[in-house]
Amino acid sequence: MITPNRRHRRAVITALAVSLPFAFITPAGPSTAAPTVPTSDQGNGAPALLSQLNLGAHDLPETRNVTTLAPGLTRTTITRGTPNQDFFWTAEVAIPATTPDATASALSTEAQAQAVADKLSAAGVPARVEPVQSPQLADSGGDLGYRVRAGQFDSKADGSATVDQIKAAGYKASVIYTGWDGDAGSSENDRGPWNLQVLTIDPKEFRGDLTSSFGPNLEDRETTSQLSTFAGALTAVNGGFFVMDPAAGAPGDPAGAAVQDGKILSEPVGDRPSLVLDKNGTSIQRLHWHGTVTAPGTAELPLDGINRVPGLIRNCGGTDDTPTNLPLHDLTCTDADEIVTFTPEFGPTTPSGPGLEAVLDAHGTVTAVNHTRGTTVPAGGQTLQAIGADADKLAALAVPGAKLKVATDLLDETGKDLKTGATTDVINGGPTLVENGQLNITAKRDGMVRSNDSNSFFYGWVHKRNPRTIAGVDAQGRTLLVTADGRQTTSLGLSIKESADVARSLGMVNAINLDGGGSTAMVQDGQIVNSPSDATGERPVGDALLVLPGRKG
Q1: Average pLDDT along the chain
Q2: Cα–Cα distance, 355 to 372 (Å, whole number)
Q3: How many other C-beta atoms lie within 10 A of the C-beta of residue 111?
Q4: In the predicted structure, residue 516 carries a pLDDT above the cut 90
């Protein structure tokens, strides 16, 4: 954790802004020829470095301005495309569910969509049915279903009257911009525009440190600029997924794996990928959780998690959970019987509620057993909370004076412990975008596909364009951090497929999607340099990736 007493050396740097046709190669004349686009079927090895992004039509204008923040550290601003007069605002209808346990969705079968369109047309609202085809990904995509839309407007406000007509006809609708669609086949012809920021960190030259911070504690949220300023960072981007709704846990708590300065602070979501930072460089790894509580001479108890509200598993991916043990993004699974440990990093007090809470000192000795949850974690110590049937199981072990061993382990894909040191940080993310130089978008494996919603979550989260934050490594070992503005007519955002294409265009051989949407933010010298999409401005987040001018340790 970045704490106030950790001092950082502020480097005195002269910023250099120069235009380059490609941010990371020797300057050359601008290219007007269509670049060779690397695809997943062109063979193995690193993707070719492109003079332009593989994004939209090949003949789009693209400018790149590079600012040198320190030796080995640059920020590149990329503007691609031009305003597209073919895009417009339209009303998208929520299609009613056909089963009692389902909700209205953006997509449905052709017959259901046509029935809704016919009813709207009969009510005086000319509606159209459109097929939706997503680019084929590693484990998902293809034909998603059919949507119903009505009207063509010059502005969002112009669609309000049509939305009211649709509501009067018995349906719900929202006004959306067609430039955000991301439909298969359209991207190759789209004119944009897009605005991206790219940080490039060359470990051979940069003498600073790439780390992460969640601020004073895990359970509270701060903006990326606040976290950056607090730590004295040169630059920063937002980090992993986190809890936003109190009904889903403690707001600000990581919704996936988290390690700070070598200390494990949050368990993974299933085996979803994480960004791992350590002295050996940056990598993307699928990590697994193994936690236990033991007392001498007794059987061990499974430890379900760390630093989260017991019974609530954001993004799912735990064990014995309802409705699934698999990752399901933006869904909160439940478990009535759990044991969760808390460290001092969580916050001033642990979550309150019914159950049992044992307090352990720095040596693992039980100093108190409370029959309700909610207390202060002792410095250097921890607590164990249990709910449901697990409360009695923990009570049998956690008697005052007993010595307990609490094991919190992250395992790699081979089953070996992740080796962590004082410089190790882990930030959760998903899905993977690029692996070993090839597109490998694992949206279904990582929980972005739901089986009971007519592909509507996939449609909005994966298929459609949104603001995105991407992290990856190129063949030279450089770490790249990318933000793409979206949900704006001046910057369309990226689909997940386009995010992977952009990552490969920039030379990444391994890349991961981080938290995006309104969380997407890049900061330089404490100031936002991208355009966050939330109407209220920069969103408070769970953690951030920081580039510091001095090394740890």
Answers
A1: 90
A2: 5
A3: 9
A4: yes
From CA 210, how far away is CA 275, in angstroms rounded? 12
Q: Are 57 and 189 in contact (CB under 8 A)?
A: yes
CA 521/CA 536 separation, integer angstroms:
13
Question: What tens digit of pLDDT does each residue of 264-304 get?
Answer: 999 999 999 999 999 889 999 999 999 999 998 888 999 99
Rounded Cα gap, residues 490 and 182, in angstroms: 16
397-413 pLDDT, tens per residue? 999 999 999 999 999 99
Q: How far is CA 228 from CA 71, 326, 333, 364, 521, in A?
A: 19, 34, 32, 35, 11
- Sequence-distant contacts of 351-354: CB under 8 A, at least 24 apart: 351/250, 351/309, 351/310, 351/385, 353/387, 354/387
Residue 324 is predicted with a pLDDT of 96
- Six token digits for residue 90: 């339209």
The pTM of the full predicted model, rounded to 2 decimals, is 0.90
Amino acid in the structure at residue 152: Q
Rg of the chain's alpha carbons, rounded to an integer? 25
pLDDT the model gives residue 9 = 31
Which residues have a Cβ under 8 Å from the Cβ of 247 and sit 6 or more positions away?
Answer: 332
With a cut of 50, say whether residue 41 has pLDDT above it. no
Check: CB of residue 89 under 8 Å from CB of residue 180.
no
- Contact indicator for 475, 509 with CB cutoff of 8 Å: yes
Residue 223 above 50 pLDDT?
yes
Residue of 269, 289, 318, 274 whose CA lies nearest to 447: 269
Nearest to 348 by CA among 372, 321, 374, 386: 374
**Can you give the pLDDT at residue 298?**
84
Q: Which two tokens stand for residue 250?
A: 């403690």
Q: Token digits for 318?
A: 């735990």
